[in-house]
Structures are given as structure tokens and as C-alpha cells.
Amino acid sequence: MKKRSLRLSVALCALVLGAVAVLMALLSCSKPADPNAPKQLRMAGIVFQEDQFFRLILFGMRDAAAKHNIELLEANSNNQPEKEFELVNTYTTQRVDAILISPLSAKGSVASLQQAHDKGIKVVTNNTTIDADFPDASVICSPEDLGAQTGQACRKYIEDHLGGKAKIAVLAFKAQEPEQSGARVSGFKKALEGMPGVSWVPDQDAWLSEMALNKVGDILTANPDVNIIYAANEGGTAGSVLAVKNAGKAGKIAVFGTDVSDQLLTFLQSDDSILLAITAQRPFEVGQQSVELALKAIQGQPFEKKMILNGICLTRTDPEGIKDYAKQFKEWTSK
User: Fold this and answer.
1) Which helix (H) or strand (E) holds 142?
2) Does domain 143-280 have CATH number 3.40.50.1860?
3) How confident is the model at residue 35 (pLDDT cuts 50, 70, 90)?
């Protein structure tokens, strides 16, 4: 019995020693974390609408974040101020390194972003801005320029094809973003100043395609002599084109718009000649630069605090320009 017990003890010891040896071997193969290695940065990207424009902003953020090994947290406030407030507070509590945001309101978005800034989080606004000087940087496409370029294309069309006379309906998005909407519409109207043959129907609000489809239908019923529609954003432009098509007014009513999407590019190249020009923003670059500026702010590098990007006017008179842009657009959306 004593010999058997001794053999069991020896076997048990061998098993234990073997397990220890395996464990030591595994530990020797793993490298300890380098305490001096830089931590992975985390940035939160917040947009306020689910459309192709904002998706492209996020795609641009992803592209730049991947380039710099940054963790990007994406969110959408869905045009709800209370949700935006909740998202900013959540990311502030999580102590992200930067918040990259398209703020809903120049005034209403200030409070939560101020709290984030006060806790050392870098704040970069894009697409829209806030009435405060604490954001580390902002990236926008000039809203006045977006309206003005489309307005210049419209002016040329009126002069060349309508004998200088036109009755214009405007679809804005004042209830959603009054500052940005007002700047785009103002830029468009200024481009047509000094044209005595141009008259206007009262501006209407419709920023989603379905809204614009119905609104334009009502406008054309009340104003059958309208021959030009200007829409200040993507949804309004798309809905206006569909409303003109449904009314059987192709060739009689021309649409000029703002922003860009696959659908608008298709409309711009279609045979019906309803959509004549759009001024596209540069959302992919807006997203990229938001990340780049935040990174420079974190690293203490010099950077441009306010970056303004001009739009790109695409018109039927330059079909090759449209094709080139469509190719670039496809590359952006495929990332």
C-alpha cells in the first residue's frame, strides 16, 4: 500500500510540474503590454439625419479613423434635440477623446457640448455650427455658396431659354435648420437679383422627398404659371423632380437643387430634363477633415480652426463633369 501511495504521489507531482511548465511556456511567449504605447483614441461621430449626405459624412469619418487607428463610435440624433443631448452626455460620460457632430441648433446644442468641452473632450462641428467659440474646429460647406452657385445656373437658364422671365417656387427647410436654410435660399435669390422678369411665390418648407412631392403638387395647383422650382436640400430636390414628373410638366417646369445623392445624379442625367442643376456639397471630405482636425487638436498640432469648403455645381450643360463626379461619388459610397 505504501509503494502504491508513493507511486500516486510521484505521478501527481509530475502532472503538477508539467502543468506549471506549460503555463510558464505560454507566459514566456506572450508579450507584456507596453506601458509607454499610445492608447487607441476614441471619437464619436454624431449626425442628425439618415440620408446619403450624412452617410457620406460618416463614410469620410470612417476612412480617416481607419487611417489613424481611431475607434469611431457612430450615432444619429434623428432630428430630435433630446436625443442629441442624451448622445452627447453619454459620450461625455464615456470620456471619448473627441465628439464630431452636426449640431441640430445653433443655440440649443450649446449646453451639452459645453459640458463635453469642459471635461477636456475635443469638439468639432461639421455641416452646421453653434453660437459659441469653444469648439476646437468646424468644417462646413458654405451654405451661401451652395445657394449662389445653383442660382447662377438658374439665372443663365432664364436668360438663355425663358427670355429673362420666370415664376419661381422655393422649397426650404427653415423649420428644421433655420440658419442653414436661410443662407442657402438667400444665396440663391441674390444670384437672381436685378432680373425684372422674375417673380416669386411664397417660400414653402419641405425637406423630405415625400413632403416635397405633396407640397409641390399644392404649389402647382395654386400657381399653374410656376415654371421653376428651387429646392434647398436633397430631399426637397428629389421630391420636386418627382412632383413635376407626376404632373406631366417635364419640359415646362425646371428644377434646380442643392446637395447630391445617387438618385439626384440619375435625375440629372435622365432624358426628361426636369432637374437641370444641383450644387453638391463635399460630405466625404467634411467627415475626413472632422477627424483630422480633432486629431491635430488632441496632439497639439497647428490646424485650421474654421474650414470652409465650396460646393461643386453640376449642370446638364457639362455632362462630362457630371460623369466625373458620379465616378468619384461611387468610390466614396463603396468605402
Assistant:
1) none
2) no
3) low
Distance CA 254, CA 251 (A): 7
Q: Which superfamily is assigned to 42-141+283-309 in CATH?
A: Response regulator (3.40.50.2300)
pLDDT at 16 over 60: no
Q: How many CB atoms lie within 10 A of CB 108?
A: 14
Surface-to-core class of residue 235, CB atoms within 10 Å of its CB (0-12 exposed, 13-18 middle, 19+ buried): buried
Give, for 99, the enclosing helix (H) or strand (E).
Answer: strand 98-101
Measured between alpha carbons, how far is 285 from 12 in angstroms, rounded to an integer?
Answer: 66
Q: Could you tell me the CA-to-CA distances from 70 to 61, 173, 200, 241 in Å, in that order?
A: 10, 34, 49, 40
pLDDT per position as a tens digit, 245-301 = 999 999 999 999 999 989 999 999 999 999 999 999 889 999 999 999 999 999 999
Nine-digit cell string for 255:
428644377
Write out the three cell numbers for 61: 469619418
* C-beta of residue 182 within 8 angstroms of C-beta of residue 206: no
Residue 154: CB partners within 8 Å, gap ≥ 6?
Answer: 168, 188, 191, 192, 228, 230, 256, 276, 277
Q: Cell triple for residue 10?
A: 510521484
Domain ranges of the chain: 42-141+283-309, 143-280
Average pLDDT of the residues of the chain = 90
